[in-house]
Amino acid sequence: MAVMSQPEWKPSACILCACNCGIEVQVEDGIIVRVKGDKAHPASKGYACEKAQRLPYYQRNPRLLAPMRRRPDGGYEEVGWDTAIREVAAGLARVRDEHGGSSIFYYGGGGQGNHLGGAYSGALRHALGVRFSSNALAQEKTGEFWVDAHLFGHMAHTAPDFERAEVAVFVGKNPWMAHGFPHARPTLKAIAADPDRALVVIDPRRSETAAMADFHLQVAPGKDAFLLAALLAILVQEDLVDHAFLESRTENAEAVLAAVRDVDVDDHCRRAGVDAELARAAARRIGAAASVSILEDLGIQQAPHSTLSSYLEKLLWALTGNFARPGCTSLHTSFSPGGLIGRSRESRRRTPVTGERVIGGMFPAAAIPDAVLSDDPARFRAAIVESSNPVHSLPDSPRMREAMAALEFSVVIDITMTETAACASYVLPAPTQFEKHECTFFNLEFPNNYFHLRHPVLPAPDGPLIEAELHRRLVRELGALTDEDVAGLREAADAGLDAYAAAFGARMAERPHLMGLATVVLYETLGPALPGGAAAAAALWGSAQLCAATYPDSIRAAGFDGEGTALGNALFEAALGNPRGITFSVDDHDASWRWIAQHRPSGRLDLAIPELLDELGALPGEPDVADPDFPLVLSAGERRSGSAMTLMRDPEWRKRDAEGALRMSPADAASLGLADGDRATVVTARGRRTAAVEVSDMMRAGHVSLPNGYGLDFNGTVTGIAPNELTSGDRRDPVAGTPWHKTVPARVEPAR
Ligand SMILES: Nc1nc2c(c(=O)[nH]1)N[C@H]1C(S)=C(S)[C@@H](COP(=O)(O)OP(=O)(O)OC[C@H]3O[C@@H](n4cnc5c(=O)[nH]c(N)nc54)[C@H](O)[C@@H]3O)O[C@H]1N2
Ligand SMILES: Nc1nc2c(c(=O)[nH]1)N[C@H]1C(S)=C(S)[C@@H](COP(=O)(O)OP(=O)(O)OC[C@H]3O[C@@H](n4cnc5c(=O)[nH]c(N)nc54)[C@H](O)[C@@H]3O)O[C@H]1N2
Ligand code: SF4
Ligand SMILES: [Mo]
Questions:
Q1: Whose C-alpha lies nearest to ligand 1, atom 40?
Q2: Ligand 1 proximity of 21 Cβ (cutoff 6 Å)
Q3: CATH of domain 9-60
Q4: Domain segments of the chain: what residues?
Q5: Residue 114 CA to chain centroid, in angstroms?
Q6: Residues 365 and 111 sit within 8 Å (Cβ to Cβ)
Q7: Is 114 in the pocket of ligand 1 (CB under 6 A)?
């Protein structure tokens, strides 16, 4: 017999973190057997971390193959699609008719599960008059977005440039484990190995990244605002600020300088638990560098003063002029302006019931249970959840389950029976990200930016429906879209994209109410004309047009020709024709200034945010409260090599740390009489859970940690601790509502 030939390598992507690396997979007997980085991907160029190797476990999650309807006894029964669509549409319509569209909330739509499907949910939301939507970003990044919106005059997003930065600063971020910027590990190694460059890490834990650092500022958990204020004060007091930059490129710098000039550095460092001389040395290194890039993440975004800390982090690069130059922070383009990230405006709306800010159109996620479990007539009464697992990922899982139970109607769209699905009235199954056309919407890079339309690498099983089709059917069932609305558009699509663009534009002008249903209109009319069964890619035509209208010069610089809709068509065709991804925009370092000038007449950064400067000024008066019942700080949800949100349910995917150990310092272990491998119970105001102890030099005394993404049900068995059984939603940021998962007051008791 001839030597068996290897199955072909098929291009796809890993979206387990925001890097969205290009990968290649080999499929045997319907199973993904091998995964490697795709050298032909324009951004990742072959890079992929070990987590991508575990993606076969995602594909092997227990699957839902038919819609599920909850029975009165709490169990589920399979129903046919016609029944499911009819009853889900009727259930949602009933709540809307009785209480209005604002009583239905939408959660999810894409993140680490999939990206493209959520684009179609906009049409369903429009058909129902849904006013409040949210997703995981509203429990991590909204405070940062709000600060950026102020600095830049619009809700822009920034990209660091660690590959070229002389000094790299990570604030509450562990890129060795969590990645979050391209080629993270080789880049960290290169910086650490170069005596002319420096790595500064602010983390209470000696994380894998901190262990490589030149300056590890081992801050007391939750005290970053004190430390960041001290670093800024050192820069101002020692005159290490970039006066020319402040003079020519910013407004209201004086208010900021005045606010930080008087900060008592020694006292703030003491409160932050960091040696003041080490802080001074780090600030001097930042002040002296030719280029500095800074990245913040959950360590400050899910801790007290989170929005203030984001602001102070940004002032570090702003006061030192490390912006819009090689090696520094820049703004970047987006393939989906107005999508998940990159909404252009801050919403002026407030949440019902609690009256909190809705930032970037996103309802503060931690406030969802409050908005359900209330007598307020404006409360939420129904939910649509898509590719997200809020019962597991929002603070206070017990209360979130209570909220789900209190809803009059709920529907979950997922590939598997999640903790959230198990609370819903209906569950609608979708194929996995490898069984359909998918894409990467985390286009976060600069000066080149990338987009990847992923082609299916496996056939979808019978039963599940792609999200586009599912939303289309619901929209049709609701009667929001008629045959007359779309008449002739299908034929126009067959005549080519130019003809389609003209016909689509004319129809929208004639019937403006269709704009809100645009993605489903595209799917129904342009979708069938797309090659290779790529109907689900139709919504991307809209993204490509919006992208071309927003960044025409950047797109032309990437090699696309045309004006207006022709440029958008060229971009769309390139995306369709390149299953390994495209470079869709190329910019120079002045681009950030041009984008700022589009939103702010002065063309400058506005540095002063009065509300946050007030919060900064009040720091010294903040009492250090210690609750004797809960003397430790629990970081609930650390990224380890065995965390991947709730994307892989079979615990076997973790080769080590299968249960997710409770990490604690040798000092705490000694005082509690615990040794490595002993079992201990973590107790918080919300709950108690038991785990094995890992005594670790990584931990600071008083700080204990549990990993994220554990505690999942797999065929009836739960392995490890679901972190949000221990957290509470009322501990959240006053500006953005981001919950303080990283600093949960806790105690640990030896378990027998
Ligand atoms: N392996 C893996 N990688 C992932 C993910 C995953 O599930 N698994 N998820 C992805 C997602 S969705 C995200 S948002 C990112 C998150 O990426 P990161 O934010 O980097 O991940 P975390 O480990 O949650 O938190 C980062 C660090 O914050 C530190 N920290 C805890 N408390 C404090 C504090 O009070 N102050 C400071 N300064 N630091 C503190 C922790 O010790 C930790 O090292 O990771 C992405 N990458
Ligand atoms: N305590 C604590 N809580 C946290 C965090 C923490 O550090 N600590 N981190 C927070 C952060 S940063 C994040 S990003 C969130 C993440 O929280 P979520 O977004 O709620 O969680 P995921 O597990 O990413 O949910 C993805 C869902 O998509 C489903 N899915 C996978 N593929 C598809 C598909 O193709 N179609 C559909 N429709 N569904 C699909 C998966 O089965 C899964 O249910 O968690 C947050 N929660
Ligand atoms: S860096 Fe992120 S996107 Fe790339 S392979 Fe690792 S987890 Fe996947
Ligand atoms: Mo996240």
A1: 299
A2: no
A3: 2.20.25.90
A4: 9-60, 68-138+339-443+448-586, 161-332, 625-750
A5: 12
A6: no
A7: no
pLDDT in tens, 77-134: 999 999 999 999 999 999 999 999 999 999 999 999 999 999 999 999 999 999 999 9
What residues contact residue 54 under an 8 Å CB cut-off, 6+ apart?
644, 648, 653
Q: What is the CATH number of domain 625-750?
A: 2.40.40.20
427, 640, 645: residue to mutate for ligand 2 pocket, most atoms within 8 A of CB? 645
User: Distance of CA 598 to CAs 145, 153, 542, 604, Å?
Assistant: 18, 9, 22, 11
pLDDT at 1: 46
**Number of the ligand closest to the Cα of 20:** 3
* 3-class SS of residue 263: coil
Alpha-carbon span 594 to 603, nearest angstrom: 7
49 CB near ligand 3 (under 6 Å): yes
pLDDT tens per residue across span 475-517: 999 999 999 999 999 999 999 999 999 999 999 999 999 999 9
Q: Which atom of ligand 3 is nearest to the CA of 49?
A: 6
Whether residue 71 contacts residue 53, with contact meaning beta carbons closer than 8 Å, is answered with no
Q: Is residue 644 in contact with ligand 3, taking CB distance under 6 Å?
A: no
Give dist(CA 367, CA 732) in Å, integer. Answer: 9
- 535 C-alpha to center of ligand 4: Å? 29
Q: Classify residue 752 by its DSSP letter.
A: -
User: For residue 680, how far is its CA from the centre of ligand 4 (angstroms)?
Assistant: 28
Nearest protein CA to atom 24 of ligand 1, as residue? 638
Give residue 415 CA to ligand 2 midpoint distance, Å. 12
CATH assignment, 68-138+339-443+448-586:
3.40.50.740
Residues in the chain: 752
* Ligand 1 touching residue 299 (CB < 6 A): yes
The pTM of the full predicted model, rounded to 2 decimals, is 0.98
CA 488 to chain CA centroid, Å, is 39
241-253 pLDDT, tens digit each: 999 999 999 999 9
Looking at the CA of 16, name the nearest ligand: 3
Q: Which ligand is nearest to the CA of 646?
A: 2
Structure tokens at 184: 């993270």
Tell me if 9-60 shares its fold with 68-138+339-443+448-586.
no
Full DSSP string of 140-208: TTHHHHHHHHHHHSS---EE--TTT-SEEEEES--HHHH--STTHHHHHHHHHH-TTSEEEEE-SS--T
Best residue among 17, 648, 654 to mutate for probing ligand 1, ranked by most atoms within 8 Å of CB: 17
Q: Whose CA is nearest to atom 45 of ligand 2?
A: 393
b/e for 8-45, b at 16 or more Cβ within 10 A? Answer: ebbbbbbbbbbbbbbbbbbbeeeebeebebbeebbbbe
Tokens representing residue 311 in the block: 């602001």
Determine the CATH number of domain 161-332. Answer: 3.40.228.10
pLDDT digits (tens, 9 = 90+) for 171-213: 999 999 999 999 999 999 999 999 999 999 999 999 999 999 9
SS3 per residue for 301-354: HCCCCHHHHHHHHHHHHHHCCCECCCCCEEECCCCCCCCCCCCCCCCCCECCCC
CA 285 from chain center: how many Å?
31
What distance in Å separates the CA atoms of residue 96 and residue 103, rounded to the nearest whole number? 7
